[in-house]
Amino acid sequence: MAARRNKPLFKLSDITGDQQEASGGALGAGPATDNPRDTEWPPRRSAAVTNTPFANFGKIVDPSGALNFSGKAVVHSSGVDFSNGPSFAINMDQLQLGEELGNGAYGTVKRVLHKPTNVAMAMKEIRLELDDTKLNAIIMELDILHRAVHPSIVDFYGAFFIESCVYYCMEYMDAGSLDKLYGVGVPEPVLGRIISCMVKGLKFLKDELQIIHRDVKPTNVLLNKRGDVKLCDFGVSGQLDKSLAKTNIGCQSYMAPERIKGESQNALSTYTVSSDVWSVGLATLEIAIGKYPYPPETYSNVFAQLTAIIHGDPPELPDTYSETARDWVSRCLVKRPEDRATYAQLLSHPFLHEDARRNVDMRGWVARALQWKDEQKQQRRLRQQESEPLHPTDTLRPS
Ligand SMILES: Nc1ncnc2c1ncn2[C@@H]1O[C@H](COP(=O)(O)OP(=O)(O)O)[C@@H](O)[C@H]1O
Ligand SMILES: [Mg+2]
Predict the structure, then answer these.
(1) Total domains in the fold of the chain
(2) Which ligand ends up closest to the CA of 155?
(3) Which of 106, 109, 114 most suits a substitution to test ligand 1, by most atoms within 8 Å of the C-beta?
(4) What is the pLDDT along the chain (399 residues), one digit of tens a residue?
């Protein structure tokens, strides 16, 4: 399933004929940040800066090569210092690079070992495009990240900036993301525990930090072998520049109907916290049934798929699930945002009440899921070997 997570080169303007570019999409994702243009431009630039493409962004990149966000934070090659106190002094020299964990639209995620502390981390590389909005979005994400301390949110360990990339280090979740695990099958109690963690994390982000996630989907739900479930990529790193008019739409949209409609008309303000609730519902359905609920096979093109989200009946959990579970999902997948459940209502719904009273062996489920994932990998490798044509010299080899 994960293999199908390709992102076709497709723009909403192809569908709507809307050629206008939306702007400030990422900026709208959370609390307002200061405009880096207000930063005082240092009088002299070092060669290191003037020779890079960042020369034009002198208001942000200071002579030492640090990213300086007016009053918020400075990200440099040896860490990040937040103006409200904390500094995170992690830098590339302290890291031993490990395997690649995945690849998103903005760069790769690698496992790394922080040598001074022997802590395994996940390092996300974000190749910066030279655009104020994106730089602003990055710092906003970092600012949110270091304040978001909650059992259902991945820990933030630090960030640094080298050349044209920002690297940020977060808790390494050693079972990976949910999209690569749910294929093993997700029994109802496990489903309940996963969504209860997701909703608690989202409610924390909203109540304590006044932010909405905007990119709720199974690849942004991470698990570890202890059975913990945590969210990542809220704020913007996972969805910089995701304003629809500009962005390639994947064949799997988790966006609420009003968001698809609104953004196709450049009305970015249509996004509210209840749009995330729709995405939670869709992600829950996907986790339960083992595939994206609007399968690309069923729709001849992305337009048909988005039309189905806007105009069709919302998808439902199959009746192999309990009435309570089905009702919970249906409370998220309400097309009118005003009628969708709030996080508080979702948490006090009988389905999550049941979860709170239950012992769920998440550790056992994760172990089974990882074993299944390994077997799938092996089978894929075997199939690949079988389908590879014999090397020409093989046929000449005497038997
Ligand atoms: N902290 C982490 N620990 C383990 N794996 C991670 C972590 N963060 C991301 N990943 C993996 O890296 C992949 C790529 O992440 P990302 O660049 O955010 O793209 P996307 O979320 O769209 O897949 C994810 O799908 C996930 O499997
Ligand atoms: Mg992600």
Answers:
(1) 2
(2) 1
(3) 109
(4) 333 333 323 333 232 223 333 222 222 222 222 332 232 222 222 333 334 444 444 445 555 555 555 556 666 666 666 666 666 677 788 889 999 999 877 778 999 998 888 888 999 988 776 566 667 777 777 777 778 889 999 988 888 877 778 888 889 999 999 999 999 999 999 999 999 999 999 999 999 988 888 889 999 999 999 999 999 987 554 444 444 334 444 567 898 998 888 766 665 556 788 999 999 999 999 999 999 998 777 777 888 888 889 999 999 999 999 999 999 999 999 999 999 999 999 999 999 999 999 999 999 999 999 999 999 999 999 998 888 765 655 545 544
Give the structural domain span for 285.
176-363
* Token pair in block for residue 216: 């709720």
Extract the tokens encoding 331. Answer: 């409370």
CA atoms within 13 A on the CB side of 331: 18
Rounded to 10 degrees, the C-alpha dihedral 231/234/238/244 comes to 130
- Domain stops at, among 109, 143, 171: 171
The CATH number assigned to the domain holding 208 equals 1.10.510.10
Strand blocks (E) in 138-258: 156-162, 165-171, 176-177, 221-223, 229-231
For residue 154, the ligand 1 atom closest to its alpha carbon is 1
